[in-house]
Amino acid sequence: MRIVLVGPPGAGKGTQAALLAERLSIPHISTGDLFRANISQGTELGEQVKSILSEGGLVPDEVTVAMAADRMARPDAAGGFLLDGFPRNIAQAKALDELLAEGGHALDAVLDLEIPEDEVVRRIAGRRTCVKDSSHTFHVQNKPPRAPGVCDVCGGELQQRDDDREETVRKRLAIYHEETEPIIGYYREQGLVSTIPAVAPVVEVTRRAIEALPARGRDS
């Protein structure tokens, strides 16, 4: 199965991508992970990305596509993969189609995680992160700490990260609507899109996603 997972920030793409990839026995390919891996390994593409990001620039489509192409060409992706964060715009979607066609392949499905904008804001703006260990995260409603503002694990102070503030979240949503959301229409014209209501328990969203896949994917 060759799948693209798309949805706004806060829709749970990372969580669902990991669960679906494990269920389907295919690699989860995340753009963010690709950037970090190439930078840490000192690859030529990684050096390009590091230089661009250090100057506050945006990684060009051709660099992102090249990294994704390199990852998809590895042996563990021969039978399929789940893409998370790529393609991010129409140009990248067209480049992906061309890459797959060169190998005699095509996408099997595009899963669109649907979530109301107010729920995105509630989910992200409610996060609180430990200043001592950023892996310790809480939520003012969904997972409140035992003591307000104090990490249950290490006693560190909990803070709201700048990129979790409501105004920042709404800016991220605006960018998503402008740049990424159009790929849903692009893939819908190809008959590939299944919309998955994502305001539900994690296991329920995973079940809905599996059921939306072509029959051979559900049987994996």
Quickly describe the structure.
The chain has 220 residues and is of the alpha/beta class. The chain has ten helices and eight strands.
Could you please describe the fold and organization of this structure?
By secondary structure, the chain is an alpha/beta fold. It has a domain at 2-115 and 180-218: Rossmann fold (3-Layer(aba) Sandwich). The protein is 48% helix and 15% strand. The chain has helices spanning 13-24, 31-41, 44-54, 61-72, 90-102, 117-125, 166-180, 182-188, 202-212, 215-218, and strands at residues 2-6, 28-30, 81-84, 109-114, 127-130, 137-139, 158-159, 193-197. A five-stranded parallel β-sheet has the order 2-3-1-4-8, sandwiched between helices. Strands 6-5-7 form a three-stranded antiparallel β-sheet. Strand 5 (127-130) and strand 6 (137-139) form a beta hairpin. Helix 1 crosses helix 9, helix 2 crosses helix 3 (44-54) and helix 4 (61-72) runs parallel beside helix 5 (90-102). The longest helix is centred in the last third of the chain and has 15 residues, at 166-180. The mean pLDDT is 92. GO terms for molecular function: AMP kinase activity; ATP binding. AMP binds at residues 31, 36, 57-59, 85-88, 92, 161, 172. Its main location: cytoplasm. Pfam families: ADK, ADK_lid. ATP binds at residues 10-15, 127, 137-138, 200.
